[in-house]
Amino acid sequence: MILLFLVDAICLVCRKACLDSFREHAIHCKELSGFKYRHYMVRDAFFDICRRAGISAKKEALVNFLTDPSDERSTLKPADVLVFGWVRGKHAYMDLIGVSPLVGLSSRGFTAGQAALKAALGKVTKHEKACIENQHVFIPFAFDTFGFLAPEAVELLIRVQRVMHNNLMTPRSTDVVFNVLALQSKKG
Questions:
Q1: Which residues form the signal peptide (predicted)?
Q2: Which pLDDT value is given to residue 139?
Q3: How many CB atoms lie within 10 A of CB 79?
């Protein structure tokens, strides 16, 4: 919360957002390589866990709904991970959301997990209705760089961990899911 410079300016990396005087934007600018790198690391780790546990999933899966008739292409980005038959036979469209826990810190006090929960809610508002209308389940997988996981992500990981334990039956399988993903979210 120390003022780093006196005048607000446009971010030199993304050239879109205002680089505020507290330098908050510099921590979470989506054009910085570390931001996307962490997202991909967590996505790849989750996909690998699914594969090892025997869960049928696809990474960066294109969905065939929400198409614009004039463009003939999907207006919904590919699922970060599409888990087949996950909830009562419906496919789960999983969208990873990695955020800095310091987003919005200058305007209000710090609450652990607040940024991840807000980001998850935004994704639910944006994608859930379209997924439901097309017989899919939407799962926002929100996490922050301090290791906070949104409740939907925790619920998903607990279920994946149970499947892994039932299919692999190794002592290590009981906590490997949370350990691997926690490492990847912080490693980036």
A1: 1-19
A2: 94
A3: 25
Q: Per residue in 92-115, pLDDT tens?
A: 999 998 887 766 655 566 677 888
How many residues does the structure list for the chain? 188
* CATH code for residues 32-187: 3.40.91
Res 169: pLDDT = 60
Nearest to 83 by CA among 132, 165, 134, 156: 156
The three-state DSSP-derived secondary structure of the chain is CCCCCCCCEECCCCCCCEECCCCHHHHHCCCCHHHHHHHHHHHHHHHHHHHHHCCCEEEEECCCCCEECCCCEECCCCEEEEEEEEECCEEEEEEEEEECCCCCCCCCCCCCCHHHHHHHHHHHHHHHHHHHHCCEEEEEEEEECCCCECHHHHHHHHHHHHHHHHHHCCHHHHCHHHHHHHHHHHHC
- For the chain, which residues make up each domain, given as ranges? 1-31, 32-187
Within a 10 A sphere around the Cβ of 23, how many other Cβ atoms?
14
Q: How many Å apart are CA 82 and CA 145, to the nearest integer?
A: 23
